[in-house]
Amino acid sequence: MENQDPLAPREEETDPHFEPVIKLTEQVDTKTLEEDEDVLFKMRAKLFRFEATSSEWKERGTGDVRLLAHKENKKVRLVMRRDKTLKVCANHAITADMRLQPNIGSDRSWVWKVAADYSESPPTSETLAIRFANAENAGEFKSQFEAAQKANAAISGGAPAVPTPTEEKKEEPEEEEKKEEKKEE
């Protein structure tokens, strides 16, 4: 008879079977609130926000930035979710007063200010920067962003914040007519 260690594995193996305490039988539908929207633009990017107290850029997330147009009212908003967790890191309407400016020293990055970003509660005013893999992607984002601004301005009946050269020319003759009317009086 051999001296066996009581903790040593025995030759007989057991396959334990555990019954779940709660059975998950029904599927739960999750709503992203994006079901009523069409994707106009989608591209992978990295998003940053400017932290005013420390005067530095903080990374907000990496994932797909999307421009979504509502199917009924046609308003366009920017939504970005982080990879893997799918947590929203940017969610705001694209307004005519937003200006995409090139980020200093980079041809593949843009900076803009948001009056109300709804990715966190309560909505906050933010300065955001987005960086793409290359300059071509950044250029495509800019053109799509500006097209969305024009579409939203047309829907709300508002004029673009910066007049186009044709609009500036239209204003000049009206001013000249007013000056001529004053002279005649």
UniProtKB/TrEMBL annotation:
SUPFAM superfamilies: PH domain-like (SSF50729). GO terms for cellular component: cytoplasm; nuclear pore. Residues 1-20, 150-185 are annotated as: Disordered. One of its GO terms (biological process) is nucleocytoplasmic transport. GO terms for molecular function: GTPase activator activity. CDD domains: RanBD_RanBP1 (cd13179). It comes from the Eukaryota. This is RanBD1 domain-containing protein. It comes from Dendrothele bispora (strain CBS 962.96). The lineage of its organism: Eukaryota, Fungi, Dikarya, Basidiomycota, Agaricomycotina.
